[in-house]
């Protein structure tokens, strides 16, 4: 009887061996994705993923924001024109309005690394060319009044730094121009949702087909840790394999010695 039970357990161990290997490989792949290992993510080319990590410089290193001159990995800005609207009869209405006349979002690649990893090591890159950013840091907000004839006014040093074309319908009477700039600094916590693409040997997150890349700034990293499903699966299979192999071997040896 011991030989029969032991033999059955050894057969079960043989069956569990390839399943355990597959389970462990899946878990290691999932772990590699969670740790933002480019090699693991390269296997997901074309798929949509959501990754959390820390902002790091792109291939060319840190950059400087256009308006505030802050060191960052990404920056974007807008210019608003505040004005007094006109009545239908041509007179002004004393109720302020504003229109955006210039908008810009950085398109340089920047890196994403796991918490605690080197910022200049192996990185996953993010292409923010078609990105929707949320919660980015407002590093500049300045209002510059419209110059008045014959009145000395502070020079508007920001206008020459604005990227992109300044356009719009300049209705009514201009009051002032408002400049706003947002940045993502190195070390900022991010959550990025997009599609995995291989580009010149790099793993890059890009906007999915017909959609936009989502970049969420300031993600709280102190969330409760969860055991990944693949890890539970790998541990369960490994334990089952070990129990069957050890118990089966012991029972077979005991059965042989008794018989």
What does the secondary structure layout of this molecule look like, with pairings?
Layout: H1 2-34, H2 38-42, E1 48-56, E2 63-64, E3 71-72, E4 74-84, E5 97-105, E6 110-113, E7 124-126, E8 131-134, E9 137-145, E10 173-184, E11 189-199, E12 202-206, E13 213-217, H3 229-258
Helix pairs in contact: 1-3
What does this structure look like?
This protein is of the alpha+beta class. It is 26% helix and 33% strand. It has three helices and 13 strands. The strands form three sheets. A five-stranded mixed barrel has the order 1-6-7-12-11. Helix 1 (2-34) packs antiparallel against helix 3 (229-258). The longest helix has 33 residues, at 2-34. The model is unreliable at 221-227 (pLDDT under 50).
């Amino acid at each position: 009887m011991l030989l029969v039970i032991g033999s059955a357990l050894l057969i079960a161990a043989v069956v569990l061996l390839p399943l355990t290997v597959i389970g462990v490989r899946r878990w290691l792949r999932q772990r590699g994705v969670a740790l933002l290992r480019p090699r693991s993510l390269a296997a997901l080319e074309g798929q949509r993923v959501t990754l959390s990590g820390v902002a790091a410089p792109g291939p060319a290193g840190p950059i400087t924001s256009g308006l505030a001159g802050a060191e960052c990995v990404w920056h974007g800005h807008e210019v608003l024109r505040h004005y007094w609207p006109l009545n239908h009869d041509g007179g002004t209405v004393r109720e302020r309005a504003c229109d955006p006349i210039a908008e810009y979002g950085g398109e340089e690649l920047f890196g994403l690394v796991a918490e605690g990893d080197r910022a200049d090591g192996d990185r996953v890159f993010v292409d923010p060319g078609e990105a929707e950013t949320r919660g980015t840091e407002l590093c500049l907000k300045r209002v510059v009044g419209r110059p008045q004839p014959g009145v000395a006014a502070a020079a508007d040093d920001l206008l020459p730094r604005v990227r992109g074309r300044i356009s719009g319908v300049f209705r009514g009477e201009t009051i002032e121009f408002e400049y706003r700039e947002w940045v993502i600094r190195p070390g900022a916590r991010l959550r990025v949702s997009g599609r995995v693409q291989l580009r010149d040997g790099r793993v890059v997150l890009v906007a999915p087909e017909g959609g936009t890349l989502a970049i969420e700034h300031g993600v709280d990293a102190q969330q409760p840790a969860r055991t990944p499903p693949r890890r539970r699966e790998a541990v369960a299979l490994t334990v089952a394999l070990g129990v069957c192999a050890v118990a089966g071997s012991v029972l077979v040896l005991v059965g042989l010695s008794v018989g």
